[in-house]
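Hey,
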Amino acid sequence: MEKAHKFRIYPSKEQEQQIQRTFGSCRYVYNYFLAARQKAYQDNGETLGYYACCRALTQLKKEATWLSHVDSTALQASLKALDNAFQGFFDRVLKGVKPGYPRFKSKKRSRKSYTTKQNSTSIAFDGTRLKLPKLGWIRAKGFRAIQGRIVNATVSQAPSGKYFVSLCCVDVAIDRQAATGVAIGLDMGVKSLMVTSEGVAYPNHKYLAQSLKKLARLQRRLSRKPKDSRRREKARIAVARLHERIANQRNDTIHKLTTTIVAEFDTICLEQLQVRKMLSKRKWARSLADASWGEARRQLNYKAKWHAKRVVEVGLFFPSSQLCSACGYQNKETIDLAIRAWLCPSCQASHDRDVNAARNILAEGLRLVS
């Protein structure tokens, strides 16, 4: 099993300078070879692959000697990231999906990162300190012991200025949750984050909505500061820290919720949702983004794989809110989101909109499984 452990690190001044130097070098290599691949295709119709770029990188390091002062595996990882970006672009073109061509990285990006590989014992963790190539031992803060074998480490800097390291580990032994033999249907919502087929509603805390006034105040302060001034940078960090706090609150709630659901149920039935398309609607975009449906579904999927559980997704056009869970009658009037409760004209059963949808999702999911 593969698992990642994320820690916050506290580098010294010299280590921070080396990290920033590596960020800049990786960005330079990425942009240099992106331009080289574009030029090669325009001139000769050739596509420079990963290994051709690696050979060219060796020659580039002789010309730009300052590239030798950073971790060589980080530069190779930036080339691999560029190759993956092109592969993703070509795959989307073949599938007929709107492609996203690889773009140049800007120096002004507030989120920076680089990845370094494990060579023998170049990456290690002793509980309070983390060892990284070209940096040595760095003070780190973590809450869990490392499991498995470390493969690589990703050093990142958040917009708030904090530094983090994510260690990718393989051969991790996970204590699987005991099987319960119980299935559940989940209906995602905005008023309640999730409603189960058993009638349990998990609240949506709306952390972004709670902090909107403070966020607006900080953004006004930021807009009034002169560009490239120290006060503007302080105001930017204040806004970034508030955004980070909101994201941490949201992730903590979703992690606890998904862990509970995976522990209690063996089969989890969900409804396919076009979240990106729904976010394009201005009326609902902020509330849907605050609910973070995509992150909740992502966590349910990988945690279910860890514990040998099953996640079943019913069809996108399945009318879960229109069907009566008691008799199967389809009431097309309930397509209106304003109708939160309705009475079945066929069997006179009374339904709560979300609970009824969750029950229909469960029945359809079990049908697909069988």
